[in-house]
C-alpha cells in the first residue's frame, strides 16, 4: 500500500535525490521581442520602464477585420483586436549572408529566417565565432509551437515551392541552424506547446552534462502570421479580448498573444571558466514533468507544478523552504483557470502549511507576459532572459496590469508579492548567489522549471567540476600574462561584414558606441579581434587615442558617403565564410633597414610589460657576449630624435630586429602565428626567427654582429659604403650607373619594383648621385632619409667572412634544409 501511494504522488519519479550536478553557464543571448527589444540590453530598458507595446493586428499579416466579431462565440471569428508584434517586418531577411537564394528564402518559414539572425547575434554576444564553432559538437534545441506559414502554404498544393518541405518542416528550424553553422551535436525541435523553449533549455542542459555536446544553443520562436490560432484560442476562452495579460488580476480575461524569438548559448561551468567566457548567469538545475490526468486536458494541476518545483530544488541540492529564490518568474498567463492554480503551487512549494515561516520575507513574483505578451513557444527562454537581466542589474522589473488582486489568488498570496514598480533585488548573505525560479507550462500538461543564479565561486566551484583544478582561480591556459590584452593601446579596431553596405552601417553603429565614456578602446579592439566572426568585407582603424580612432572612422565614412564609387575597406578572397571550409593563412613580412624612426619602441615598451620583458631578455643575451655593446637596447629604443643613434648600422640592425622579435612574440600570445614569412635584408633575421629557425637570443646576436661588421666595412683606401633608394627601373638604373661620373663606383644593389631600385657604392659616389637625382625628383625617400650604410654592396661582401666567424662562435646556428635567402 505504501508503494502504491507513492506511485500516486505526482512527484514520485522526482523523489530520488541526486548529488548536485554541474551548473550550466549562460554565456550569451540574443532576442527579438515587441517594443523594439532587439537585444538583451534593449529588452532590459523595456522591462525596467515598461510601457504598452501592444498593437492592433496589422494588415500585413492577415485581414483582421475579416476575422473579427465582438462575440467570441461567433463561429470562425475572434474578438481580439490587439496583440504584441515585432517592430521589424519578419519578411525582411539577409538571405545572402546565410547563403540562401531569394527563391528558396521565400519558401522558408519566417520563424526559421528570423531565428537564423537571432542565433547569430546570440553567438556574437557569447564571444563565439563562426570559425571557432564550425565542425564542433554544438547542439541545438529549439522550442516551437506555431506553424502558421506551413499551414498557409499547405492551402495551395498546386503551387508548392520546390523548397516547401525544407522551408516549412518543423524539424528544419533546428536542423537548418546546425546545417548553416556546421554544428555536429544533437539538433532537435521541441513542441510541448507554451513550455517548448524551457523544455529545450532542459534538454540542452542534459546534453552538456552527458558530454553529448560541448556547447549548446537553446532557442524559441513565435510569429503570428495567420488568424487560425486566434480563432481556435478564442473558442476555448483562453485568449484576452482586451489584448492584455493581466496576471493575477481580478479582471484577467485570458492571455495576450505575443511574438518573440530568443536564443541562449550554454556551456558547463568548468568549460566556460577554462575558455574565459563571460558568465551572464548560471542554470543551477532544470526539470520537467506532466500533469497526467486532470479534470480536463487544458486544466493545469497545482499538485504536479508544486511537485516539479520541489523536485528541481532537491536535485540541485537545495531546500525549497530554506533556499527559496528571491524572485519567481511565473508562467502568469492571466487566465482565470491558470493563475489561481499556479499561485497555489508556488505557495505549496516554498511555504508549506506544515512549516513555520517566521522571517516574514515575501517572495517576489512576476511575469514578462504582462509587458511583451505571451510569446508561446518562446515564453520559457523569455522568462529565463528576464531573470538573468534582473539579477545582473539587481533590480526586479515591475508587473503591469495588476489593479485588484484576483480573489481566487488571494488564499495563496500571504507570502507572495507582485511588484508594480521597479524594486531593488532583496539582499542576500555575503558569498551567496542571487536566485530566481522560472515556470513554463504547456496547455497540454507539460510543465518545465528552471533555477538560475549568479555565479559565486565559493558556492559553485564546490564539486568534482571545480575542486580538481580550482578553475575559477586558474590563469588562462597558455597565457603567460593574463593582463597583456589590456596593455595594448593601439590595437586596431577590425570591423567585418558580409557586404560593403553592411560594413558602412556597422561603422556608423560603432562610432556611436565608442563615443561612450564607459567604453574602453582596448577592450573593444580585443573583443572585435578575438570574439567576432571574420567576414569577407573588412576595414580597420588604429590610433593611440580614442579621439584619433573615432576621427579616422568618421573620415572614412564621409569619403564613402560623399563620393560615388568609393569603397569601404577591402574584400578578402581567403576569409573563412560560413560553410566554405576555407582557412585563412597569415603571411608575415619583415622589412629591412630604412623604416625605423627615433623612439619607435617607446609606446609599446611603456604600455606592454610583456614586450618590455622580451626586450630585457634580448639585452641580457647581448650582455653575455665578450664584445658586448656599450649601449642599451631599451634606452636606444626610447631615445628621442635629438640623441637617437638609429642612423648607425651597428645599432639600427639589432634595434629593428628586437622590435620584430617582440612583435612576433606578442602576436603568438594573442593566438596569431604565421603560415609563411618573407624578409628583406636584415628583416630575414626576424623572418627566420618567426619561422622557428633559431631562438630569440640567436636572432639578436646575428643582427648585432651583422650591424657591427657593416659599420666596419671599408674599401682598400678606407672609403665607407652607402646606399640610396631611387625612383626608376632596373634598366634605367644600369644606364645611370654606367654613364654617370660615378661609373665603376656605383652599382645596382636591389631591384625593389618596376619603378624602384637601390643603388650601392662608395660614400662619395652615393653622395654625388644623390645630388644629381635629387633635383630630378627621382629619390624614393625624402632626401634626409634616403642614404643608408652600404649593407648590400661590395664592401659588405668583404666583411661577410668576418660576420660569419663572429656568428659561428657565439651561437649554434645551422641553416635548415629548404631555407633560402628571402624566406
Automatic annotation (TrEMBL):
Skewed-composition ranges (Basic and acidic residues): 53-62
Domain Ketosynthase family 3 (KS3) per the UniProt entry, residue ranges: 21-454
Source organism, top-level taxon: Eukaryota
Disordered as annotated region, ranges: 53-74
A Pfam entry, by short name: Acyl_transf_1
Keywords: Oxidoreductase, Phosphopantetheine, Phosphoprotein, Transferase
Species name: Anthostomella pinea
Protein name: Uu.00g034720.m01.CDS01
PROSITE patterns: KS3_1, KS3_2
SUPFAM superfamilies xrefs: FabD/lysophospholipase-like, Probable ACP-binding domain of malonyl-CoA ACP transacylase, Thiolase-like
InterPro entries reported in the protein's UniProt record: Ac_transferase_dom_sf (IPR001227), Acyl_transferase_dom (IPR014043), Acyl_Trfase/lysoPLipase (IPR016035), Ketoacyl_synth_AS (IPR018201), Ketoacyl_synth_C (IPR014031), Ketoacyl_synth_N (IPR014030), Malonyl_transacylase_ACP-bd (IPR016036), PKS_assoc (IPR032821)
One BP term from GO: secondary metabolite biosynthetic process
One Gene Ontology molecular-function label: 3-oxoacyl-[acyl-carrier-protein] synthase activity
